[in-house]
Amino acid sequence: MVVIAAALIQAAGDTPAGKAMGAMGLSVAVPDKYKDLVQEAGNTCPEISPNLLAGLLTQESGFNPKAKSPAGAQGIAQFIPSTWEKDAVDGDGDGDRDVWDPKDAIPSAGVHLCKIAKEVKDVPGSKQNNILAAYNAGSGAVVHYGGVPPYRETQNYVKSIGSLVGKMSSGGKKATTTQAVTAVNAANDMVGKPYSWGGGDANGPSTGTCCSPRGRSGKGIKGFDCSGLTLYAYAQAGITLPRTASQQYAASEPVKAGQMRVGDLIFYGKSAESLHHVGIYVGGGHMIDAPRPGTKVRYSAIDSMPDKFGVARPVPNANKEI
Predict the structure, then answer these.
(1) What are phi and psi of 56, to 5 degrees?
(2) Is 0.70 topped by the overall pTM?
(3) Is there a domain that residue 99 lies in?
(4) CA distances to 132, 160, 205, 279, 321 from 155, in Å
(5) Element (H, E) at 40
(6) What total of structural domains would you count in the chain?
(7) Could you give the dihedral angle defined by the CA atoms of residues 14, 15, 16 and 22, in that order, rounded to the nearest 10 degrees?
(8) What is the CA radius of gyration of the chain?
């Protein structure tokens, strides 16, 4: 599994997908000069992540180190002075703690988030939502209300950052690059399996059905068709997809040009309602797919079909928490 992931990173090179995988899950857009700081501070404790911190900084200041709010919050992480005094660290080791210096403020935000995580660890519900709500409204309010407080500002705050970080599942998961790598590895393990019209489910290759538009039958062939492969791959990452390509597109989040990353699904057809093919992007202009009857699961160029419709990113199920 690790070998395959490393190979995919190398294949992706300098594409957005390769950079996202190389950043070990940092898929929220972060200015280059802050990426290392966010990556390190986002791993301060297991309860937070680089994506969570990146989403928070985006919401708080848009990565503006000179930001100042009417309420007196300061810097890239928008610390209230009293909180800064308690939780700030000397991130760059220069002997001072400067709220206006991202080299201090970003590591301090990681430390503060981890402190909050401990304060709300026994509160029921989404841990991510509770941590974000506590950053905005205070841990006491989250504890008092047993979750995100009924404050419009705090609820909108949590929703906004959640949409940046990735939608949450009922179990607290989010659609991360780690899940995408799991799905890609699962698909890679199936390379060489035969194409079977109607074949493939969450458990792996299965006997197909009859018949394809050209009359080819999957009966008697244990393998995958295109959407059976993607369904199986993402099931291994804990994400349930529906059966057909059109249904999978409808259940995923569209991705804009230039933002495609490893693990995204690439769809082909004339319209969202009549998609005929789907593959899993692996970087470097290639995907893993089950192309058509008579072939096997393989690596294909994403331009191997002329009617690419769009790209979408699978999201966990039952994920609306607020």
Answers:
(1) -65, -45
(2) no
(3) yes
(4) 10, 9, 43, 36, 10
(5) helix 32-41
(6) 2
(7) -50
(8) 22
